[in-house]
Design a protein that fits this description.
9-stranded mixed sheet; Arc Repressor Mutant, subunit A; alpha/beta; about 45% helix; about 220 residues; 2 domains
Length: about 220
């Protein structure tokens, strides 16, 4: 019972921090007419780490204008509550125009709202909180990769697969991406305790245990 009480107290603590930022700090700096809508946006993202947001659809759903939603998301980013990443393209203007993914800046914050969220999504949230990735990838056929790391002109696709066995179907998007962008390396974070490497269709795939994330 003490353990459950401790978890409850931690959640209350994180909620109090988020509410202070949303209802007090942000409105002191930015012109926020409806802080309760800010809170609603935070909850939506916290319950769905890595959510793809269509501004037009979400603005209609929560009853605000597209422009207001865009502003509110910007305020949350500036307050370091939310992190946005872009759909990868070699053309940065194209990336700006596509759907974007959103996470809360810490999985501890997301866990407040996502008690029943798939653990793999929270691991994604952990990874993006530790790394400065700017991109994910999703094509018109819904092939998707969690993160794309771009460093020194090298492009490395990165997937979170919170499972102990990786099947061929789990590699499909990585192989498609590698062929399209001529990449030679990919990384998968998985639930297994062992690291391994394999080469498939010219792509070097490195599998790393999730616990490597704090390295």
């Amino acid at each position: 019972m003490f353990f459950l009480k401790e978890i409850s107290e931690k959640k209350e603590y994180f909620v109090s921090i988020i509410k202070k930022i949303v209802f007090e700090d942000i409105p002191q700096i930015f012109p926020v007419e409806h802080p309760e809508v800010l809170w609603q946006i935070v909850k939506i993202i916290g319950q769905n780490p890595g959510i793809l947001i269509d501004y037009q659809n979400l603005s209609k759903e929560i009853g605000i204008s597209n422009k207001t939603l865009s502003s509110y998301l910007f305020y949350l980013e500036e307050a370091f509550l939310v992190k946005k990443i872009y759909n990868f393209s070699r053309n940065l203007i194209t990336s700006e125009k596509k759907l974007k993914k959103f996470y809360l800046t810490s999985p501890s914050l997301s866990s407040v709202f996502s008690e029943f969220t798939e653990k793999g999504r929270l691991v994604e949230n952990l990874l993006i909180s530790l790394k400065n990735y700017k991109f994910f990838w999703r094509d018109a056929y819904h092939h998707e990769i969690d993160f794309i790391n771009v460093e020194d002109k090298k492009i490395v696709p990165i997937e979170v697969k919170y499972k102990k066995e990786i099947e061929k179907k789990d590699l499909k998007s990585l192989i498609i991406f590698a062929k399209k962008y001529q990449t030679q390396k990919a990384i998968i974070f998985w639930k297994n305790i062992f690291a391994s490497k394999e080469k498939i269709k010219g792509l070097q795939i490195e599998r790393l245990p999730v616990y490597f994330l704090d390295l």
